[in-house]
Design goal:
Lysozyme-like; binds zinc ion; single chain; five-stranded mixed beta sheet; alpha/beta; three-stranded antiparallel beta sheet; 226 residues
Length: 226
């Protein structure tokens, strides 16, 4: 049965007064200024050092430490970009000791992307780094470019975690700079015809992507381990 409009108002008014309805100020949004910018100045790339289920567990607030991220990129056959924290809000990915040039506490001024990747293991033959699947990098690059464009992030402000916390962090790691993307199945493993190195990922060869070049960035520091 439909309640008449007047009775509905009488019924709702006390509830509204008891809750926040009455205290929300009305803001006129019809005015604007061109003199403003995004609070986002940096884009920081990470690897997770674990698999996708564990990464989701960690970055959705189920781990001991306080860690969160704007985007989590999986390593599935068809990689998924999970948007976990809204870009308008700070995520806790950079660390309180993070810094770049004169800026500190980069959680407040950055967007973070965690890439699912196992990181490295030390063995008898030295350190081995986990490769990045080609499709993962092919998915990452448009995401990076889109974020850069929307927030007017300068190419030199696309950084690795190892750039902004060099004492503690190695990510996104030694193989990231030359991760494969846009694979050419006919390429020769080891060296391309022009003499450039190629990678073999899951039985398929691909040219090195040179991720910084793809996004127009001159990487300022090479990730630790090179
Ligand atoms: Zn990191």
């Amino acid at each position: 049965m439909k309640m008449p409009a007047f009775r509905r108002l009488v019924f709702l008014l006390p509830i509204c007064l008891l809750t926040a309805c009455a205290s929300i100020p009305r803001v006129d949004r019809s005015l604007s200024s061109p003199d403003q910018s995004s609070r986002v100045k940096y884009l920081v790339l990470h690897y997770t050092v674990t698999d996708t289920p564990r990464s989701i567990h960690i970055f959705t607030g189920h781990s001991q430490g306080q860690a969160s991220i704007h985007y989590l990129l999986t390593d599935a056959e068809q990689p998924v970009i999970h948007g976990i924290v809204d870009e308008s809000r700070a995520a806790y990915h950079a660390g309180s000791d993070s810094g770049w040039k004169n800026d500190r506490q980069l959680n407040l001024t950055s967007i973070g992307i965690e890439i699912v990747n196992a990181g490295w293991v030390d063995g008898p033959n030295g350190r081995t780094w986990a490769p990045f699947p080609e499709k993962q990098i092919d998915t990452l690059i448009p995401l990076v470019k889109d974020i850069m464009a929307r927030h007017h992030i300068a190419p030199e402000h696309v950084l690795g975690h190892s750039d902004i916390a060099p004492q503690r962090k190695q990510d996104p790691g030694a193989l990231f700079l030359e991760a494969p993307c846009g694979g050419r199945p006919g390429a020769v493993a080891g060296r391309s015809r022009r003499g450039k190195p190629t990678h073999s990922i899951r039985g398929r060869t691909a040219r090195p992507c040179l991720v910084p070049a793809q996004i127009g960035a001159a990487w300022l520091r090479r990730p630790a381990g090179r």
